[in-house]
């Protein structure tokens, strides 16, 4: 039976992804991303072409443009074009609702710092979906920042609701008096 070897974390990544002192850095990233998502989602939720009487029309137009790019051999791979054509296009209205309200929920989650890692993950999934469909815009930057927030899930919401919610969900923090401490695998304080 092989013995497990624990490799210590380097000081920079330990600070960025585990220290509550780095929470200020992630607060600014969260607010920037949250604002981007909530404004995009709010526009969609209030748009007739997304969730109104003509719900799905915007998605149909977007997918049609992506399929045209795929036919020209530009920016959209064949497997993703197949997904868009056979899954998204026939269900454009459902996807329009998912995108509009998904963007809004990701934005709210990031701004208030609630389930930050999960919110950032779903934001990154949407960014990748837009990138696969051939839309560059701010998606690469938003994807990178969301990925960093996913990596920093333990401390990215420290200055937000995660500070209170994550301990209730059984995450790596426990309260010792007025101080939060991490736990190692043996549930001993570190």
UniProtKB/TrEMBL annotation:
Topology class, membrane: Multi-pass membrane protein
Keywords on record: Membrane, Transmembrane, Transmembrane helix
Major subcellular site: membrane
Segments traversing the membrane: 23-42, 94-122, 128-153
Compartments, record wording: Membrane
Descriptive protein name: DoxX family protein
Pfam families: DoxX
């Amino acid at each position: 039976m092989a013995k497990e070897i624990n490799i210590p974390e380097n000081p920079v990544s330990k600070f960025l992804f585990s220290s509550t002192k780095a929470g200020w850095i992630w607060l600014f990233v969260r607010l920037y991303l949250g604002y981007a998502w909530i404004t995009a989602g709010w526009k969609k939720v209030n748009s007739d072409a997304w969730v109104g009487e003509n719900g799905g029309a915007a998605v149909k137009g977007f997918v049609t443009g992506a399929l045209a790019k795929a036919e020209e051999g530009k920016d959209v791979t064949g497997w993703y074009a197949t997904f868009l054509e056979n899954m998204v296009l026939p269900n454009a209205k459902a996807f329009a609702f998912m995108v509009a309200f998904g963007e809004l929920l990701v934005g709210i989650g990031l701004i208030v710092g609630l389930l930050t890692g999960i919110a950032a993950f779903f934001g990154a999934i949407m960014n990748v979906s837009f990138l696969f469909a051939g839309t560059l815009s701010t998606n690469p930057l938003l994807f990178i920042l969301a990925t960093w927030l996913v990596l920093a899930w333990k401390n990215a919401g420290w200055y937000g609701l995660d500070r209170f919610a994550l301990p209730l969900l059984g995450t790596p923090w426990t309260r010792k008096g007025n101080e939060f401490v991490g736990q190692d695998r043996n549930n001993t304080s570190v």
